[in-house]
What we know:
This protein is of the alpha+beta class. It folds into three domains: 2-112, no CATH class; 154-299, Beta-Lactamase (2-Layer Sandwich), CATH 3.30.450; 309-467, 2-Layer Sandwich (Alpha-Beta Plaits). The chain has 13 helices and eleven strands. It has helices spanning 2-26, 31-47, 51-71, 77-153, 159-173, 192-198, 223-235, 268-299, 309-326, 340-347, 349-366, 390-406, 443-459; strands spanning 178-183, 205-208, 240-248, 253-262, 330-337, 372-375, 380-386, 408-412, 422-426, 429-435, 465-467. A five-stranded mixed sheet has the order 6-7-5-10-11, sandwiched between helices. Strand 3 (240-248) and strand 4 form a beta hairpin.
Amino acid sequence: MKAFLQSLLDLFTFCLTVITVWLIIRYPCYVNYSFLLFGVSLLLAHISKFLFFEILILFGSIFIGILSIYFLPSSNNMVIISEMVSFILWYLLLLRLDEIREKQQVLFFENRENLEKRIGEIKYNINYLRTEIKKNLGKIQNYKIVEEIINKLASFTSFEEINFYLSEIFVKLFPWFVTYIYIEGYTKQIEPVLQKLFTFLEKDSVYVSDLSTYLPFLKPYQVVDFYRTKEYLLKNGINSFVCVRFRREKENEDLGYLVVYSKHKIEEEDFRLILLLSSYIEIAIFNVKLYESIKELAITDSLTGLYVQRYFKELLTEKLKMYKYYKKSLSMAMFDIDNFKQINDTYGHNIGDEVLVKFANILTTRLRETDIIARYGGDEFIVVFPNTDLNNAINICEEIRNLVMKETIVVSKNITSMKPGLVRIKFFVSCGVSSYSENFSTTEEFIDYVDKLLYKAKQSGKNKVVWG
Length: 468
């Protein structure tokens, strides 16, 4: 369309010029008016950028003006000359306007280019700010989650709770990483990949952003093993990892490990966040260990390692509830070491403690894991046999009594006399055993009944099992 309009304008300019020349030839007396038409033609040719025709009009009009001055009456000469001068000035004005327009155009393009650069910079800054805002929002969100994690970790009292909770949290925080938490004494098996990663731990933490280029300081004998380990990890899709050891320096105790690995690069910011979390996880694991040790002290006897009376009664109450619900048989036995006071008085309390520990070991070795064993008093022990009728319980108790008869405690003769040598001490136990029935309205009634059977065994000669 533009080319068509250009052609149309060129045609119109050409026709106007031809008509002007024809008018000058046909009416030479009006030659002074022809310069107006030449000016219009020149303007149109200039607009259409038809340079050849533009120069032709310019020189043609001047040539016609000179011929008119020479051949026409002198009265019109000054008018023609003035019009010729005006025509030339008109052309110079057009050229000047072109020059100004070109400068303005160059300035316009420069300004537009600068503006586009500026717009590009602004767009880049906007995108950069958006990215940073997203990162900062992500950081804020992550640290809010970290705050929640810290508060939550302080409330846990078991390793199961810690492990389950952290497994969910790490999926939210690092969905593109693989996370593994190993707790000493709780986690039973270590995957081969993790064992390989643990070998990189020279200090309490290690961060490898790119395993393919990672090369630590190695002694000659370590080189082969390192490259084998490195090749093994790369084959398993591990190119970046963080490994942190949980450790309590005061106790000189390893608590466990936190391992995070990925085939993609783990950024330093992620590493710092992992380190921050690991410090609180370490505290949580130590608190749980401390809690369990305190709990263990509260429910077990420090000498024999068996349950104490109070905790035993709680367990017995739970077992009796299950008995009533499932209608299963349940038996209980109470043991007492015969003449224990005499052993203490003769050989001392250390030997007495040794007798207690020996009998506790016999019970734990012979009985099942499901049986509940407790130290009920000074030299009294009590056992609950779940899913065991009275006859089987009697047989077990007789077996335990016979095992005790075969045991001896070897002590130095110096304890009782000045003569050197060794003394072998024998000890025996009495036992009362019964099965639970609906006749017992409370746990205490059941225990009292078995205690009376034990008293009966001791009154009837000791070293025997009495049932009822």
